[in-house]
Every structure is written in structure tokens, then in C-alpha cells.
Amino acid sequence: MDFNTEVALVTGAGRGIGLAVAEKLGNLGAAVVLADQDLTGAEAGALAIEGAGGRATALAMDVRRAEDWQEVVAEAVRRYGPLSVLVNNAGFDRPGGVAKLDRCDFEAVLEVHLTSCLLGMQTVLPVFAQAGQGAIVNVSSVYAKIGGQGEAAYSAAKAGMVGLTKSAAREMARQGVRVNCVLPGLTNTPAIRAMMSEKIKAKLLAETPLRRMAQPGEIANVIAFLASSEASFVTGAAWEVSGGWNM
Ligand SMILES: NC(=O)c1ccc[n+]([C@@H]2O[C@H](COP(=O)([O-])OP(=O)(O)OC[C@H]3O[C@@H](n4cnc5c(N)ncnc54)[C@H](O)[C@@H]3O)[C@@H](O)[C@H]2O)c1
Question: Do 109 and 134 meet the contact criterion of CB atoms below 8 Å apart?
């Protein structure tokens, strides 16, 4: 995979899967913008990429804000030229089951995962359309397909991202833009380490044929492939990267 002529924007790139994606694309030659609401991790990531000989910039961004999308995309283009890859990865969780889920929590989760994904695609489309090419990878979850007990908002948001991905793939194909999503299984990131009990982790791993969590780099590898010209005939795909969970 060769990203030497590519300019990539990765959201939620301050840690976890987003940071691994930024590092992967940077190491493959892309100029990378690491966008996150928490700039500390994104700045460290950008320095690491530059230290390895790559090109990277950290920018503060709240993916819920349309103005932030406009500013970050404009800044990426100003620094590196036409943006060609977008990875919609930023995310968070407010657990809760259907019966008692608070409406505000439900809408907050939808806003970060689903509405922000729409905003991102709407912002980059004119840039991609003008260049006649571009690749978008949206980070969904296996829960999009199987649901999660006590994870109603998150599962709904992630399922919504799959529908949004497929609609965008159909609509944007004529402009030379490919849109795909990945559905990770349990992945060893700060979010999971902070919020998931050992008991629940053990239960989920028992349902995972490979019997372990993914490392963030294993998710990043698939995202990089889908964003690369090696995947030039792949669009509208929802690719599970789950160790066999949900076969
Ligand atoms: N870790 C897993 O097991 C797993 C499994 C399936 C899907 N996912 C998805 O992968 C993505 C990354 O997950 P992770 O585990 O690396 O999470 P993480 O919490 O470790 O990292 C998420 C990053 O997103 C940033 N972020 C959150 N809200 C933001 C906002 N409004 N604007 C800008 N940045 C924001 C955070 O600051 C953080 O740096 C998420 O979309 C998550 O739902 C993760």
C-alpha cells in the first residue's frame, strides 16, 4: 500500500484505534491530520509520526460541530493539498438498556457516532468530488449487526453508520469516491480498559472464536487497506474485524 500522494484526516486520533490508524497511514507515506477533542494524545501521535520521517499535524476538533469540520478540512488542504482519505473514528459510549435508556444519553451517542459521520462526509465530499477521487472509512462495530445487551444507543448508532455508509457509497460512486465501514470486535484500547469489567470481557471473549481482543493495529491494518488503492473496487462494504465474533 502506498499513501505517498494521499492526505488523510483521522478523527478520534488521540488514542486507541484512531491513533493506530494515523500511525499506520503516516508510516505508509500519507500526510496525516490527527483530529481529536483531546489534543494531548493527538500531538504526541503527530510527533511520533514526524519522528519516524512522516508528515503529521494535530488539530483540536469536536466532531459534533459543523464549524470544526469546515475549519479542520480547510486547514488540512491548506497544509498538505487536497484531502483524499477520511476516517470517521471518534466515539464514546453511554451504556444503557432499551427499557430505561435516557433520551438525552441516546441522542448524545447518536450525535457523536452518526450525526458526526454525516457531517464529516458532507464536508469532504466537495473536496473529493473536485479531485474525482477519495476514500472514506467509517468505524462502526460488530454491535451494529448483533446488538449489545445494555448497549442500545451505541448499537443503534453503529447500525446507523452502516446504513449511512452504504447510502453514501451509492451516491458518491459517480464522483470516484469509495465509502466503506469496518465493524471491530473487542479491541484493546483505553476506552475498553477503562470501562469494561473483567467479567464482561471474559464473557465476550468466550463468544470470540480467536479468544482474544484485537490490538488497535489489527483494526488499523484493515482500515488502511480499505482506504488504499489496493481496495479500488471495494465500496459499500461493512467489513467485520472481530476474531470471528458473529459468524
Ligand atoms: N475498542 C473497541 O473494542 C471497539 C469495538 C468496536 C468499535 N469501536 C469503535 O472504534 C472507535 C475508536 O474506539 P476506541 O476504543 O479507540 O476509543 P477511545 O475512547 O480509546 O478513543 C476515542 C477517541 O475519540 C475522541 N473523541 C470522543 N468524542 C469526540 C468528539 N466529540 N470529537 C472529537 N474527538 C472525540 C476521544 O477523545 C478519544 O481520543 C469508536 O468509534 C468506537 O466506537 C471500538
Answer: no
> Best substitution site from 141, 197, 222 to test ligand 1's pocket, by max atoms within 8 Å of Cβ?
141
The three cell numbers of residue 190 are 483505553
Asked if 149 and 207 count as a contact pair (C-beta separation under 8 A), the reply is no
**How far is Cα 141 from Cα 162, in angstroms, rounded to an integer?**
9
pLDDT band at residue 50, thresholds of 50, 70 and 90?
very high
- Enumerate the active-site residues: 154
Task: Give all domains of the chain, ordered by start, each with its CATH number.
Answer: 7-239 (3.40.50.720)
CB of 37 closer than 6 angstroms to any ligand 1 atom: yes
* Residues 181-202: tens digit of each pLDDT: 999 999 999 999 998 999 999 9
Residue 243 in contact with ligand 1 by CB distance below 6 A: no
Q: Is the CB of 45 under 6 A from ligand 1?
A: no
